[in-house]
Amino acid sequence: MVRRMSPMPSHETPSPTPLVLPPALARAMPPFPPGAVWLVGAGPGDPGLVTLQAAHALAQADAIYFDALVNEEVLRLARGDCERVFVGKRAGCPSPKQSEITALLVTAARAGKRVVRLKGGDPYVFGRGAEEAQGLVASGTPFRVSPGVTAGIGGLAAAGIPVTHRDVNQSVTLLTAHDASGGLSQRLDWAALSAGSPVLVVYMGFRLMDVIADRLLDAGRPADEPVAVVANATTPRQQVVRTTLGRLAARLDVDNVAPPAIIVVGGVVALAPVLGLAAAAAPEVVEA
Hints:
Layout: E1 3-5, H1 23-28, E2 37-41, H2 52-60, E3 63-66, H3 72-75, E4 83-86, H4 98-110, E5 115-119, H5 129-139, E6 143-146, H6 151-158, E7 173-176, H7 190-196, E8 200-203, H8 209-218, E9 226-231, E10 239-244, H9 245-249, E11 261-265, H10 272-275, H11 277-281, E12 284-287
Parallel strand pairs: 2-5, 2-6, 3-4, 3-5, 7-8, 10-12
Antiparallel strand pairs: 1-4, 8-11, 9-10, 9-11
């Protein structure tokens, strides 16, 4: 679904809160010329995790095309007269096709606008940013990628879970649970993932969490391996459920959790209570 949020009269619109950069930083920012598109990462939810480059882009944008997981407070970094267009994709809900979103970006840029495509997390981490970039290249539209903090790293940190620890793991694998059809990806080699990566971070896996757990158990991961499900990471609504792979396969302990959520499997989950960050960052922490 494409929903345009045209600028409203000032008495109806909350005052934006532009970020004024120190002169030295402002001079270091790349130019954002009219007719260009920036693919910008909004981070995992907390507006404080937006990068300075992202804030710089939002302050100059004439039009912003944003996703469902973008915090509204991040949009307040834009000018009051900036056009805001919702193009979010949500499972089971009407949403624009990827080609339609890219066409909107190209059309706005050709009209001489500074265009921000604002995406939750990082544009190039399971966010279709590369597909949009390919479309911009094909159309001859100048663009820049402004990376963001991805939920599989920043979101877990907010839950007290480091993705690496030298006493636990020397590698980590980020994976998405489903393919373009919305079903479980057939390209994933579960045996190889299980054997080759001590820590797995699963994006967009909430609906299929029991199936994923079954696949990992079948591939040889132990049923008592620590697992955490982190929902609404870095926001006031954050929830952290710590359980085990066997219990996740039975969909136990997660009745009161709703997506968006990140799932992490591996020994680093056991560090959360030791680090003491989960209780401070999340209003609700459940241990199985």
